[in-house]
Amino acid sequence: MNRKALFERIDEILWNDWDPIGINDSSEATDEYRSYVPHLVKLKLEGADTSKIANHLYLIETVNIGLSGNKIHCEEIARKINAL
């Protein structure tokens, strides 16, 4: 999978499956999580394991977004990203 396709797939996963703030029912906000995609693409291309990707997603949830975070859900999403 090339970098552009990987970017698009991860963006879709974040929007459709991760969605920590629960906005994916609003078509006006489809780019809400896009700024997180480049680093996740980098992690994936570097061969990061599921735990590392999950930890990064959890960090985004708790630090960047300011939520309490959901480690189990982040691990599920990380597995989807690693399966690409």
Question: What attributes characterize this protein structure?
Answer:
84 residues, single chain, mainly alpha, 62% helix
Protein model, in words:
With 84 residues, the protein is mainly alpha-helical. It has one domain. It has 4 helices and no strands. The chain starts with a helix and ends with a helix.
Quickly describe the structure.
By secondary structure, the protein is mostly helical.
Rg computed from alpha carbons, rounded to a whole number of angstroms: 12 Å
- Main sheet characteristics: none
* Count, helices: 4
**Uncertain spans, ≥5 residues at pLDDT below 50?**
none
| Tally of individual domains | 1
Question: Level of helix content?
Answer: 55-70%
The amount of beta strand, in percent, is under 5%
How many individual β-strands? Answer: 0
> What is the mean predicted local confidence, pLDDT?
96
Structural class from helices and strands? mainly alpha
Shape: globular
The N- to C-terminal Cα distance equals 8 Å
Order of helices and strands: HHHH
Topology:
Blueprint: H1 3-18, H2 37-45, H3 50-64, H4 71-82
